[in-house]
Structures are given as C-alpha cells and as structure tokens.
Write a structure and sequence with these properties.
By secondary structure, the protein is α+β, with helices and mostly antiparallel strands. The chain has one domain: HIT-like (HIT family, subunit A, 2-Layer Sandwich), CATH 3.30.428.10. It is built from 3 helices and 5 strands; from the N terminus they run αβββαββα. It has a 5-stranded antiparallel beta sheet. α2 packs across α3. 29% of the residues are buried. The protein binds adenosine monophosphate (AMP). The site of adenosine monophosphate has 14 residues, from loops.
Length: 139
Amino acid sequence: MAYNDENIFAKILRGDAPAFKVYEDDYSLAFMDVMPQVEGHTLVIPKNPTENLHDADPVILGHTMGTVQKVAAAVKQAFTAPGIMIAQLNGAPAGQTVFHLHFHILPRANGIDIAMHARDMADFTLLETHAQRIREALG
Ligand code: AMP
C-alpha cells in the first residue's frame, strides 16, 4: 500500500498538527502519545515517509532505533521506571492505527497495568509537564 501523507504523524512532521515534542534530529522525532497507556508514554518516528517496519529503509531504521534507545533512557530516568517496554505494531490486524512507522516507549513497574491502547485523551497540561521531564532528562 502506498504511504498516505494525510496521517496524523505526517501532519505533525509538516507542522500542520501540534505535538508535545521531546527530541528531534535530522532523521527522527519523539513526542508524547496523546492517549497514553501509562504516564510517560512516548513515541519515536522516522522523518522519512515510512508506513511500517516492512517498508523501512534499514539505514533509517537503524537511526530511528538509536533515537529509541536515547529517548527510552531519558523516559526511564524521568519517570524513575524500573522497566521500559518498547512496542511497534505493523498493519491494522496487529493494531496499528496510525500508518507512519512509530515505536512506543512505555515506562513499566511491577503491579502497574497499562491502559487500553489509543483510548483516553490525556490532560494536555499534565502531558506538557511529562514532556518537560523527559526533555530535562535528555539534557
Ligand atoms: P498504533 O496503534 O501503534 O498505530 O499507535 C498509534 C498511537 O498514536 C496511539 O497510541 C495513539 O494514542 C497515538 N496518537 C494518535 N494521535 C496522536 C497525536 N495527534 N499525537 C500523539 N499521539 C497520537
């Protein structure tokens, strides 16, 4: 299927939609998930128009994973998370709802379940404080 640049992450990349950005470089962008499954739920995307893992350029993918590693360390520090879960969904049957490649970074702790995927909109003031904590952890 051809990449559709009307998806919400393409709009964020173009500046046509807002985002709580925490990190950006020439190849990738990280921002808060607006329907977080847990406090600190962050997304990392390549800037390159890429629908999912299957059509990703390996070089772009490698750079994106470098950003996932960097941002995951900052999320772990910012939320004092004992564990970090990385999730990435390919295709609607797998649960993908936004068709621009993205990696979910979720702080995890024993005994704390994560909320339903893409269900409840966060309070934006709280989300900005979470974004700021991650920016500070990134230095
Ligand atoms: P997936 O189902 O893996 O495609 O995940 C898409 C994610 O994007 C979900 O966790 C949504 O909560 C999140 N999401 C949808 N719209 C936005 C948005 N405008 N800004 C940030 N996250 C979003």
